[in-house]
């Protein structure tokens, strides 16, 4: 690539940088991009760069594979019901230890190593994410549904120029127990509470595909009213449906744009938010 071409790429990003300066972007981080060390570093570099150019990134993470690993080490079975982890008291202790401890602090350390400033928290800190037991046809144990997010608490962290790194654990409304929260839902609720400029869900697929076997069939932009037909036509199914629903709910609650992108593509966040074409599916 010539020096002129590199300069052209930077200039192309300029209006997007200007538009996003001072704005909040919530990023749900998970999937393969969280397991592969090279991909992890690329994602965190993107986020540190966002902070450097004046964007306020917030990371919300899960860590299913890490939880599975520790449960296996302790001789406990990973049990799922309709795609959600059954979380009894012992499993919740592991979730809290792994997500709020190792996974969270490893991300904070990597951000600091790459020149950013971060602070790692769970929804239990300052009780800023409260939840109730998720109502379901089957008992899922300590799986929760968020009832409130204290946006003032998050805004104070943003004002200190730190990147909040939030593990998807909430406190019960009576402050007596903790709940395991789906990370996509957690990110959506946090973005909605802040009226964020963007919500970005990192996944292992390019976005919404008309044909799952053809990456060239990507739907680049979607309006909420178009979602129903995609569901009825069978284009949206399985794991993509709850992700789309999270995005639609966030947009309806005041988030300007929601994006589903492939976190396995190096620097996917920057390509999506700082270029004309983007690389994933944007809901607006």
Can you walk through the features of this model?
This protein is an alpha/beta fold and 284 residues long. It has one domain (3-283): Acetylglutamate kinase-like (Carbamate kinase, 3-Layer(aba) Sandwich), CATH 3.40.1160. The protein has helices at residues 3-20, 32-35, 37-52, 64-73, 89-113, 151-159, 183-194, 227-232, 240-252, 268-273; strands at 24-29, 56-61, 80-81, 84-85, 118-122, 129-133, 144-149, 163-167, 169-172, 178-180, 198-203, 221-222, 257-262, 281-283. The strands form three sheets. Strands 5-8-2-1-11-13-14-12 form an eight-stranded mixed β-sheet, sandwiched between helices. A hairpin with a 2-residue loop joins strand 3 (80-81) and strand 4. Helix 4 (64-73) crosses helix 5 and helix 7 packs parallel to helix 9. The radius of gyration is 18 Å and the shape is globular. The model has no long low-confidence stretch (mean pLDDT 92).
Number of helices: 10
Quaternary: single chain
Strand content: 15-25%
Distance between the termini: 34 Å
Based on helices, strands and strand pairing, what is the structural class? Answer: alpha/beta
Rg of Cα set:
18 Å
Entry summary:
The protein has 284 residues and is an alpha/beta fold. The protein is built from ten helices and 14 strands.
């Amino acid at each position: 690539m010539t020096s002129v071409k590199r300069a052209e790429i930077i200039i192309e990003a300029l209006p997007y940088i200007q538009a996003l300066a001072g704005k909040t972007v919530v990023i749900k981080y998970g999937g393969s991009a969280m397991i592969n060390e090279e991909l992890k570093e690329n994602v965190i570099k993107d986020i540190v760069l966002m902070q450097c150019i004046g964007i306020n990134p917030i990371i919300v993470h899960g860590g299913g594979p890490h939880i599975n690993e520790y449960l296996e080490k302790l001789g406990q079975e990973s049990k799922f019901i309709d795609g959600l982890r059954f979380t009894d008291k012992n499993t919740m202790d592991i979730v809290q230890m792994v997500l709020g401890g190792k996974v969270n602090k490893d991300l904070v350390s990597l951000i600091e190593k790459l020149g950013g400033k971060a602070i790692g928290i769970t929804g239990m800190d300052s009780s800023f994410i409260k939840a109730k037991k998720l109502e379901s046809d089957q008992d899922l144990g300590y799986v929760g549904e968020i009832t409130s997010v204290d946006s003032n608490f998050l805004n104070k962290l943003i004002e200190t120029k730190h990147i909040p790194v939030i593990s998807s654990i909430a406190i019960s409304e009576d402050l007596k127990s903790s709940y395991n929260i789906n990370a996509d839902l957690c990110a959506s609720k946090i973005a909605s509470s802040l009226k964020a400029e963007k919500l970005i869900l990192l996944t292992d697929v390019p976005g919404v595909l008309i044909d799952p076997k053809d990456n060239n069939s990507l739907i680049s932009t979607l309006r909420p009213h178009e979602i129903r037909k995609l569901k009825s036509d069978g284009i949206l199914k399985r794991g993509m449906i709850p992700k789309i629903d999270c995005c639609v709910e966030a947009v309806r609650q005041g988030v300007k744009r929601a994006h589903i992108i492939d976190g396995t593509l190096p620097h996917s966040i920057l390509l999506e938010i700082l270029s004309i074409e983007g690389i994933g599916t944007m809901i607006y």
